[in-house]
Amino acid sequence: MPSLSPAIAEIRLAVRTALADLPEGSTVVVALSGGADSLALAAATAFEAPKRGIRVGTLTVDHGLQDGSDEVASRATQTATALGLGALIVRVDVGGEGGPEAAAREARYGVLADAAADVKASAVLLGHTLDDQAETVLLGLARGSGAASLQGMAATRTDDDGLRWVRPLLGVRRATTRAFCAASGIEVWDDPHNTDDRFARVRVRERVLPVLESELGPGIAEALVRTAEQLREDAEAFDEMIHETIEDIVEHAEAGISVSVAALAANPAALRNRIIRLVVDSEFGVSLTRLQTLEVARLVTDWSGQGPIDLPGCSAARAGGRIVFTAR
Q1: Which residues are annotated as part of the binding site for ATP?
Q2: Average pLDDT of 58-83?
Q3: pTM above the 0.70 mark?
């Protein structure tokens, strides 16, 4: 018998490992675009899922942003059907808020969540690869938004509704998914947006990473992903510490919430700043910038009678021995 392609073996193993964390007999939805990454994911899932009694469906979201997008979606679902998978196409209207990429992503994730709820799926499988993770980390570094953005994408995340978002291929190179499809005789679609240098992610992919590889040596993408993994581990430990601390130092206040000045002052700056950001995000749904966080922290560490600080959605002021956050 012919030997199994290394690319097929690697991706099947990655999917098998991811599915092992899901309950036997559950249902999963694979996000299918028609590109090599999602097709390799769908094909490997079609092979591995029946071994655990897991039912699989695919959802292709037609954003309508390119001519012929309906044909691309149709070909993707035809491939899914040929693999023995249920297939659904949903057309969405993409707004412009936050830019076309962000708007398309928001619409896509919303549709995937709705579809998963309709079929009572326990997880949505996404085809992001190691290369996507490396690009995400570099983009986060460029934004200067701290360790949270440098963590990249989580391999598994559970949302507020209990739905798992799983990325089985985060340890797999993009070239491997193309090799998988070639070895499997699967025709792939190449999204023109993936070579359009109007998008920052494309410039990172086509220009920045190749220069880093050339000047610093091979393995840059893998190194970035290792960094993201380490930062995520650190962040999880910090978050556990923060939640334990918050229970003792936070009190509800009129139209807001308050935090003990003494308790904030007793913590290291890294923990103090994280507490401030988490309190504001949890109570008001607002993400503070580092500058805003440091201004609030000055109410603790450099108090000289300064007045309230205006923040997005709320204000912060020192009142006696507490920092009070009030909705605006």
Answers
A1: 33-38
A2: 86
A3: yes
